[in-house]
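Is this the right way to post structure tokens for a design question? Let me know if I should format differently. Anyway, here goes:
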């Protein structure tokens, strides 16, 4: 499999080159040159397959022969060492829980898969280090820190906006040490992301071999397809069309879901549910894509004003807006509406959602009016404990502390505060 840049101004590369580079030399996102549908027999028998077997079939064409079958299966087994349950919330509405991994966020899958791919590619290059440089609006940082902790030949530098991630999220990315470094940025997520992009453009940093572990990296993004296959496996027996609602920030999950559909997974419709950072919902109304500065909300991992993966979604539909709209809708919700949804879900079903999942639920409920015979699935992307300062007072409950979280609560936070790109560059050059 070869990958091309969506800026179309650089040669095609292998899977390995795309993973290591992160961004193409022309600063475009990489995209696979072909997408071959999976055999009908695969979908007919999917309920009889293990999650590892499903994931292998979904991902193998994108890796090709660059990682041998046995090694790829081992990477997948280590990536998927936890469950992905669908939980009934109300009639024909299910939550797909993606938070049962080590950092209790959906990004554990992509981070673990990518880290192990990099480790495989670096196994004979002990003196040839890569630096993973990543911006986080919440859960990416913790997942990347956990996934890459102790990986040979990889240093990790994580930028996060000071005061704009939850306490638990901050602890997960600032307390691990070893090859993980955290930079606390005086600004918002977009400032962090802008600094990261600037570093990739800086030719004087080429010797650092920078790569990204955000969902712009194909090895972080493509494994997110797995969730949709796993949900289909669990709910297939109901023999109903399926509508997926993804709480959306950088649009990696929903883009991966559309990839799963292109592989043949029978998904009827997608909903991109956003908070007040409504660049994509507005695009569907006006036809004009106009990024804007991000605004802080209680669903902080979605505080993105210029979602990186949206260009991949447009590519999947050949930039045909009408074709895109047949499969895809997008709605925006403010904090007040999100808070009320948390209360309503808990009151009506006893299910404890968190702010991102609540936004996904709201978008799903709205779209389901157009699909009365379907099953609706909204993604619960992080454990409610990661937002206990919101969930506990809103629902007037006390959440038990999971073991994954308890392990970081008493560790010392270590971070370096920076304000400018100059400070980031100086840090990278000195490390």
């Amino acid at each position: 499999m070869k990958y091309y840049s969506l800026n179309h101004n650089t040669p095609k590369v292998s899977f390995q080159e795309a993973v290591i580079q992160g961004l193409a030399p022309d600063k475009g996102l990489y995209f696979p040159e072909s997408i071959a549908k999976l055999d009908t027999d695969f979908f007919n028998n999917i309920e009889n397959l293990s999650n590892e077997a499903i994931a292998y079939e979904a991902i193998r064409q994108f890796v090709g022969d660059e990682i041998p079958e046995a090694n790829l299966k081992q990477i997948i087994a280590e990536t998927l060492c936890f469950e992905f349950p669908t939980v009934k919330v109300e009639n024909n509405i299910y939550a797909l829980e993606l938070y049962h991994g080590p950092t209790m966020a959906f990004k554990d899958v992509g981070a673990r898969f990518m880290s192990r791919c990099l480790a495989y590619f670096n196994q004979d290059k002990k003196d040839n280090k890569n630096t993973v440089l990543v911006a986080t609006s919440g859960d990416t940082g913790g997942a990347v820190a956990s996934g890459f902790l102790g990986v040979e030949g990889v240093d990790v530098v994580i930028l996060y906006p000071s005061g704009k991630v939850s306490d638990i999220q901050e602890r997960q990315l600032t307390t691990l040490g070893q090859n993980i470094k955290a930079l606390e940025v005086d600004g918002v997520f977009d400032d962090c992301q802008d600094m990261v992009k600037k570093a990739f453009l800086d030719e004087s940093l080429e010797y650092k071999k920078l790569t990204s572990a955000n969902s712009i990296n194909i090895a972080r993004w493509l494994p997110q397809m797995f969730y949709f296959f796993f949900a289909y496996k669990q709910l297939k027996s109901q023999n109903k069309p399926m509508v997926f609602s993804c709480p959306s920030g950088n649009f990696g999950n929903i883009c991966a879901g559309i990839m799963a559909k292109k592989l043949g997974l029978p998904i009827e419709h997608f909903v991109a549910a956003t908070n007040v950072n409504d660049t994509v919902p507005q695009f569907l109304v006006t036809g004009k894509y106009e990024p804007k500065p991000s605004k802080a909300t209680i669903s902080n991992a979605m505080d993105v004003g210029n979602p990186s993966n949206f260009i991949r979604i447009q590519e999947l539909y050949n930039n045909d807006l009408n074709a895109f709209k047949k499969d895809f809708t997008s709605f925006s919700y403010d904090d007040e509406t999100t808070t009320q949804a948390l209360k309503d879900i808990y009151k009506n079903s006893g299910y404890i959602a968190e702010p991102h999942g609540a936004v996904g639920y709201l978008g799903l409920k709205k779209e389901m009016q157009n699909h009365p015979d379907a099953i609706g699935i909204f993604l619960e992307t992080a454990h409610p404990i990661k937002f206990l300062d919101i969930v506990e007072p809103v629902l007037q409950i006390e959440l038990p502390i999971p073991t994954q979280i308890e392990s970081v609560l008493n560790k010392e936070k270590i971070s370096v505060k920076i304000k400018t790109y100059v400070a980031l560059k100086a840090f990278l050059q000195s490390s």
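Format looks fine. Someone answered above. Worth noting: The two ends are 35 Å apart (CA to CA). The longest helix spans residues 107-122.
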